[in-house]
Each structure stands twice: as C-alpha cells, then as structure tokens.
From TrEMBL:
Keyword Signal part of the UniProt annotation: no
Enzyme nomenclature, EC number: 1.-.-.-
Stored CDD domains: ACAD
Name of the protein in question: Acyl-CoA dehydrogenase family protein
Keywords, sorted A to Z: Flavoprotein, Oxidoreductase
Coiled-coil stretches: none
C-alpha cells in the first residue's frame, strides 16, 4: 500500500501513521472475507486495541495521547485504505472520545470512568440514537425509547437502529424520552446490558456491525445519567461544532484513495499487445487519472484545512465552523464515489470481478451518501450562512 504523508505535519504523526499503515495492510488482507460474510471484524478490532489506537484521542490527563483532529483524520483515512468498514466503525469511538473531551458534555466523573476503561481494557463507546420510527436524531424526532424514573435511577426500554460497532461496545450513549414528561434524557448504558439483533445486511460497509440494539427494562443508576433536558435544548455535545464528525469524510476519502492506488498501479503496469506502452500513457486514461487526483486533492485539502482550523480555534469559535464541516463531508463523499467510478472505467470490465477490490469500494462509497450530515441539511446550512449578511 502506497504511503501518503502529504498532510503530515510532524515526525510524531509520521511515526504513528506507520502504525496505522501496518494495521491497514493487515485489514486489507481480511476485508473481502468480512465483506462477503457480512460479519463483524473482531480480529481487526482486537488489533486496534492491541496497538493502542483506541486510546489515542483520550485526554493526556487520563493517560491518552490527546491527538489533534487533524491527526485523527490521517489515521482514519489510512485505516480506510485497508478496510472501510473497520475504519468507519472505529471512527465513531475515537471520534466520540475527541468530541467529549472538547465539548465537556459528560459530567467529569462519567467521562473519567470511561476514559480509564479505554486505557485499561481498550473499552469502546458509541452513541446509539436512531430509531425505526424517528430515523436520524438530527431530524428532531422524539425518541420512542422510554426512560421511567425509579428508585436510584431509571429503567429504559426501546430499540435503536444503525448501532455501529455494536458487537464490540462496552459503553453506549442512549437517548430516551422521559416517561410522563416532554423531556429527553441521555444515559450511559453498559454494552452487556443490551440485546443485539443482527439486522445489518446491506449493499456496502457490510462489516460495521450496525445492528439494532434492544433495551429491555435496563436499569441505569443516577451516576450514569448524562443529562435530562427539554426537547428544544441541544445536546452539549454540539458545543464543539461537530469537528469530530470529519472522521466520516476521512473514511470515504480513504476508500477513494485505495481505488485510486489500484487504478494507478493497473494503468502503470498493464500493457495490452496492441500498445507499445502501458495504458497510463493513453490520453483518455491519463485524463481519468488526472481527474481522480484533482477530486481527491480538492476534497482532502478542504477537510484537512478545516481540521487544522478547528484545532487552532477557541471553544467559542468552533461552532461557527459547522456549515463548513458539512461542506467537507458532502464534497468528500461525492469525490469518493466519483473517483471509484473513474477507477473502474480505467480498469474496465475486470473492475467488476469479485476477486478484485474495486467492486467492494464501489459499494462502500455509496454508503457515504447516507451518513450524517445529509446533503439537504448541508446545503441548507450553507445557504443560510451565505445569505445572512444580506438579510434585513
């Protein structure tokens, strides 16, 4: 796998990137099997724990490296070059830890306990908020999952969909409507206390383990209640502007880079007997290769520039970057599937073969269109920001 360090800014980043490259190389060898089976990549997750990667975004005060957002994207992109499903799945964990350390959304006692478990055992966390009836929480629907107050805490019953990383989660942030109230609560639930229903059988990103999780009268003590708020109150996790969500475009750009690498290698080495040179020198192939480079360079430059700006910004200024983060996601996912399409045109009919990775890349990048934020929300945010100075 080609080692790309164009956006690396320090020797320390470069050394850590070598670790994630080794992981990505190993993931690439297993990706086809996990994709074909639609099974969860337990071996990959074990490697990520063993390498210490799952701890890298933990704050230094709790023993982690506290890497920057910009560096996190380097690693997520690299992991996705090996296996998009594994990268997307683990991205929710490392991204959420970064989000929590920047937003201060959790009470200190809860966040410290979670970080300590990550450091001690490689514990993993994700937020599970989508539901069959309400869809994405970003659309504003009230959770049908219900929390009923009892002595010492709450009992929660409900079902969550698209629960990525579910087979490996130790901690789950769950949203639930408070019974006999219009309030909504956020609760930390232990992974061992939920039931997983294996519903994830999709076109792309087949190995993310995004199954349904079912909560059946799960007791949550007061010590694991994050917040109880009125419906129109935004979660404190939004305080950081959502920069951590750039792990999503980083993943899809990583898949696009893998497709680019495959097509470049093919074009540079394939020489049919009708030509005296490799097809990389054929004008229409050369044009497609150049288009791929431009699309990736543009999308990656925007993403890494915004990440660097987020890292350098004050906590008060970070929320202003939210529309631009959405723009980076839309541009990246669009670029990724356009690049994969171009790569397949370069390789030709061979690109459809199950024994080659391009058809998997093609399916995986389509999933990016359905990861948040959705394009319509992005365009709405950008339009409102653009017209704001001209409104009376």
């Amino acid at each position: 796998m080609y080692f790309d360090d164009y956006f690396v800014t320090s020797p320390e980043q470069r050394e850590r990137l070598r670790i994630t490259k080794e992981l990505a190389d190993a993931f690439a060898q297993r990706a086809a099997k996990y994709d074909e089976d639609g099974s969860f990549p337990h071996e990959n997750i074990a490697d990520l724990r063993k390498s210490g990667y799952v701890t890298w975004t933990v704050p230094k005060e709790y023993g982690g490296l506290e890497i920057s957002l910009q560096e996190l994207l380097l690693h997520q992109e690299q992991l996705a070059r090996g296996d998009g499903s594994t990268a997307l799945a683990i991205g929710w964990h490392v991204g959420m830890i970064l989000n929590l350390r920047a937003s201060h959304a959790f009470p200190d006692t809860i966040f410290q306990a979670i970080c300590q478990s990550v450091m001690d055992t490689g514990a993993l966390i994700n937020s599970c908020a989508s539901e069959p009836a309400t869809g994405s929480p970003s659309r504003g629907g009230r959770p049908e999952t219900t929390a009923t107050q009892v002595d010492g805490g709450y009992r929660i019953t409900g079902r969550k969909t698209f629960s990525t990383l579910s087979p490996a989660l130790d901690w789950i942030l769950v949203t639930a409507g408070i019974a006999d109230s219009d309030e909504v609560g956020e609760f930390i639930v232990r992974g061992q206390d939920v039931r997983i229903v294996e519903t994830w059988n999709t076109l792309g990103m087949r190995a993310t383990g995004s199954h349904d999780i079912v909560l059946e009268d799960v007791f949550v003590p007061h010590s694991h209640v994050v917040t109880v708020k009125h419906p129109k109150e935004r979660s404190l996790r939004n305080n950081d502007g959502g920069g951590w969500m750039l792990h999503i475009p980083a993943c899809y750009l990583g898949v696009g880079l893998a497709a680019r690498d495959f097509a470049m290698n093919f074009a540079a080495t394939y020489q049919p007997n009708s030509l005296s040179h490799p097809i990389a020198d054929v004008p229409h192939i050369e044009e497609k290769l150049g288009q791929m480079e431009l699309k990736l360079l543009s999308a990656r430059t925007l993403m890494y520039d915004l990440a660097a700006r987020w890292d350098a910004s004050s906590e008060a200024d970070r929320p202003r970057l939210r529309p631009r983060f959405g723009a980076a996601k839309t541009q990246a996912t669009t670029a990724a599937y356009e690049v994969v399409d171009l790569a397949m045109r370069v390789v030709g009919a061979r690109s459809l073969a199950k024994g080659l990775p391009l058809e998997r890349y093609y399916r995986d990048v389509r999933a990016g269109l359905h990861n948040p934020p959705m394009d319509d929300i992005v365009f709405k945010m950008l339009a409102k920001e653009g017209t704001a100075p001209f409104r009376k």
